[in-house]
Amino acid sequence: MKKGLMRYLVFVLILSIFLQVSYAAIGPEELVDNPSLAVTLVNQDPDPSEPGSYVDVRFKISNNGLKKAENVEVELIPEYPFSLDPGKKALVQLGNLQSRQKDEEGIILRYRLRVDENAIEGDNELRLRYRYNGNTWIEPDEFLIAVQTHDAILSIDAINVAGKVLEQGKTSAVSIRLSNKADSVLKDVNVKLGLSGLPFVTLDSSNEKSIYQIKSRTNADITFNLLTTPEGSSGVYSVPLEVSYADELGKVYIKNGSVGLIVGAKPDISTTIDSTEIYESGKTGEITLKVVNKGVTDIKFANLKLNSNNEIRIISSEEVYLGNIDSDDFETASFNIFTEKTSKESVQIHLNLKYMDANNNEFKETITLNLNLYSTSDAKKFGLKEGKGSVGNIIVIIIIVAGLYFYRKYRKKKKKA
Predict the structure, then answer these.
(1) Domain boundaries in the chain?
(2) What is the largest CA-CA distance in the chain?
(3) HEC secondary structure over 341-354
(4) Residue 27 banded pLDDT, cuts 50, 70, 90
(5) Other C-beta atoms within 10 Å of 324: how many?
(6) CA 273 to CA 375: how far, in whole Å?
(7) 389 or 26: whose pLDDT is higher?
(8) Is-contact 245 154, C-beta < 8 A?
(9) CA dihedral sign of residues 197, 199, 201, 206
(10) Are 156 and 257 in contact (CB under 8 A)?
(11) What are the distances in angstroms from CA 398 to CA 50, 152, 179, 390?
(12) Residue 84 carries which DSSP code?
């Protein structure tokens, strides 16, 4: 037992030394400080493609490395059953790709390919290679393009969402149009939505619906009533979609796809005067404005601009960047202004508010607020402005005392006379 343990410890020690030497030989910078290109197949349209027709394939090329990739080239290598039309280039110059590209970042590259009319049904391989800065070509694994004869093709022609955007706490109808492209009847059509982990629940039915049959060259609609949960975050959700059906010979087909649903609500923004140092015309002071997000969706990149007019002049900067304002939260912006002399009871403050919602929709609002003004006496009466206070009272008392003193002195002189 002890000998086995000693052998294990010696093995671990030797392995550790080997890894450290290898790391030192390569160098940490060479391990990480290089471009790292990745190519993914975004989609094909139509899916599946048909023999004798065209298919659009879209690739995303992104740089996940820590260093910029310069002079990026991508070349498609079309082989049977795919081909490019004469005059169409397989080699594309993409220029430079910035580093650390994630999620949706990168370049989308589209090729339009002709599918041979004798193409075999199933997944057909499509090759592509790339390089940067004139280095050696790199060829990733083959991409699979689905080809299926038109004899048993059931396609998803359209997805319609009532209102286009699903709002939190509300129900919307999501309709999926299925089109039978085949020359024969398709039977036992079943559509299933994968809602697990998503902020949607179906009402009046399950997440699975069926149609007995769809005749050749006809369409059929399947509608789900989806309730978006109140706590669902705004954004775009990809809902897995599974469609299964059978042809007249009983062969079963299964297609997997997705439905893109947008969740969000129109922002509900309120802007008010939170506090002010100005209560009279002809005065300079600071006003603080409050921007409140009363809606269920967050907003971002909020910017508030105060505009001069013939009633006020801006002493400070006219713009304040507010940034992100979460739902049921607020931000404030302060400005120094001068109010022109006027007999009006208020002056108008004109504002421009710009922001974006969670789905990157831009909003612009023009806002007018009234800043109330008071006379000096009203300002004192309402406690908005301090009076002379104790100093004034002392002066009055001094005047009275002095008056009494001189009055008594005058009476004494009169009596003596």
Answers:
(1) 1-30, 33-148, 151-263, 269-373
(2) 143
(3) CCCCCEEEEEEEEE
(4) very low
(5) 15
(6) 20
(7) 389
(8) yes
(9) negative
(10) yes
(11) 106, 108, 100, 12
(12) P
For 161-267, where are the alpha helices, taking DSSP H only?
Answer: none
Q: In the CATH scheme, what is the code of domain 269-373?
A: 2.60.40.10
Strands (E), 181-280: 186-193, 200-203, 208-214, 219-228, 235-246, 252-263, 269-276
Whether 269-373 and 151-263 are alike in CATH topology: the answer is: yes
Report d(CA 306, CA 97) in Å as an integer: 40
What CATH homologous superfamily does 33-148 map to?
Immunoglobulins (2.60.40.10)
**pLDDT at residue 244, as a whole number:** 93
pLDDT digits over 109-145, tens only?
A: 999 999 998 787 678 999 999 999 999 999 999 999 9
Residue 300 token pair: 């971002």
CA–CA gap between residue 351 and residue 302 (Å, rounded): 13
Cis omega before residue 46 (within 30°)?
yes
- Tokens, residue 364: 């612009």
DSSP E strands: which ranges in 116-234? 122-132, 143-147, 154-161, 171-180, 186-193, 200-203, 208-214, 219-228
Q: Tally Cβ neighbours within 10 Å of residue 118.
A: 9
Q: Look up tokens 């949960």; give the residue.
A: 229
Give the per-residue pLDDT at 25: 41
> Hey, which residues does 299 pair with through a beta bridge?
325, 357
Cβ density class 27-64: b for 16+ within 10 Å, e for less: eeeeeeeebebebeeeebebbbbbbeeebebebbbbbb
The CA–CA distances, whole Å, from 62 to 74, 109, 145 equal 12, 11, 21
Two tokens, residue 411: 């009476």
Q: Is the pTM of this model over 0.85?
A: no
Residue type, 11: F
Counting Cα atoms < 13 Å in the Cβ hemisphere of 417 gives 6
Q: Which residue has the tokens 């989806």?
A: 226
CATH code for the domain defined by 151-263? 2.60.40.10
CA distance 8 to 11: 5
Measured between alpha carbons, how far is 12 from 388 in angstroms, rounded to an integer?
Answer: 87
pLDDT reading at 22 higher than 60: no
